[in-house]
Amino acid sequence: MFCFQCEEATKGTGCTTKGICGKTETIAVQHDLLVYVLKGLALVAEEAQRRGQPDASVGPFIAQALFATITNANFDAARFNALIQATIAKRNALKAAMGFSSDQDEVTWNGPVSAYAAKGAEVGVLSQPDEDLRSLRELLVYGVKGMAAYTDHAAILGLEKPEIYAFMIKALAATTRELSLEEMTALVMECGAVGVTAMALLDEANTTAYGHPEITQVKLGVGTRPGILISGHDLKDLQDLLEQSLDSGVDIYTHSEMLPAHAYPAFKKYAHFVGNYGNAWWQQDTEFAAFNGPILMTTNCITPVKAAYRDRLYTTGMTGWPGVQHIADRPEGGAKDFSAIIEQAKTCPPPTELEQGEITTGFAHAQVMALADQVVDAVKTGAIKRFVVMGGCDGRHKERSYYTDVAQALPQEAVILTAGCAKYRFNKLDLGDIGGIPRLLDAGQCNDSYSLAFIALKLKEVFGLDDINELPISYDIAWYEQKAIIVLLALLHLGVKHIRLGPTLPAFLSPNVAKVLIENFDIKPIGNVQEDVTAMMAAA
Ligand code: SF4
Ligand code: SF3
């Protein structure tokens, strides 16, 4: 196996025997083969579009299948065998319907399940010998994986855009061709543009379904009733769970990326939606053990499952772990059936308390815009000198304490804008406020990163600036998995420069590709805390 798609790639180069994430060689080569046959499906779908016979089911299928391959989403070999089989079947049906033939291996390979491991090993990322082309192809594929996750979330809530699916198809198909470095770079940039569209669509889907997030205090302590812990990013799953557990005597707690759900008006009406439990994804083994009740993983991030809570863990959607109970998809127009989780919860003791207090969330774009006059005044008077965007992912690496230290070292005139689980490095610190505006504004999940771009674009308009880089905003982004890659590409598309990216630069950036990003966008690695804080406050 060889995998270097996340920030925790072994030794900063790639995992070759087993993933730090827990991905085994079996799963890694299945991921590689699934992506390979999806490229074949994309080639056929592209031909169908060219002939004026597009198949509308291909885009959503690709989005779901790619979602399953993002880091920490799915570790279940049986699910991947089924996905590979379904991809080949879909590709073959579309070929047959068009009477299309091709001698490209991605389009013709038809091996049995027993051949998957060998084929996956043959078609992995190292099969491209040129390190720059490999780097650009993988950057594009990882961007599309992130886009796929956001697109699937929007589709679950009923919003889809054909141009997003068309780009995914075009991008996957393009990675099978011998394109020049310039052509590949252009596709990577286009990926960022379509990423903005996908993020805006998801924002629309979330806010249409559940209202605009509002400033909300979320409790960190626990009650005396049994609980269900819901993790991941899927708000529709949360909605179904809240509805079905009404009057069950069970409380619902959020974990990790589900925390910002408390800020949606639609969820505030549930009295049994009581608080947030624990921290970012990577501490789940001890936190899930202490929770005592069932845990529902709606999306990434799952870490290797421990015996202490294995029989209380459930996956759903594109997530999976071998041997862990999986809740089936909702029937058309219906709801998922969470009754087994609710029944189990009733038999469990209440959660063991980990901490007490409250944290504030709900600063998505509408809430920030509601405070726009105050914010603009504070900038004009100099009470706010700088906004620092510290969004993205959290992870295990101890170097990530950098983000806690930066949050603490920033001067009083700096406001932090965050989204994603990166926030857990500083969201429990008392950072105070500036004339009533909290110094930490949490816009939500990584899925809500659109808010960060929206706020920047609105401020640019209010201040009458021509260039987004003239705003008093610095970017100090933490990344881990592929959704952070599409957010990064989206920011680059919007013209944002001087982004600090950490805790390490992606292993999949070859020296030449990294050089292009540095020369064109002044992307830089994180450095010394005090030096970075001083530089950011000086707009560098
Ligand atoms: Fe390694 Fe990350 Fe790939 Fe897992 S996802 S195998 S940790 S590079
Ligand atoms: Fe986190 Fe996995 Fe990226 Fe949604 S939950 S931001 S890492």
TrEMBL record:
Hybrid [4Fe-2O-2S] cluster binds at H233, E257, C301, C393, C421, C446, E481, K483. GO terms for biological process: response to hydrogen peroxide. The keyword Iron applies. It catalyses: A + NH4(+) + H2O = hydroxylamine + AH2 + H(+). One of its GO terms (molecular function) is hydroxylamine reductase activity. Keywords: 2Fe-2S, Cytoplasm, Iron, Iron-sulfur, Metal-binding, Oxidoreductase. PANTHER family: HYDROXYLAMINE REDUCTASE. Belongs to the HCP family. This is Hydroxylamine reductase. It comes from Lamprobacter modestohalophilus.
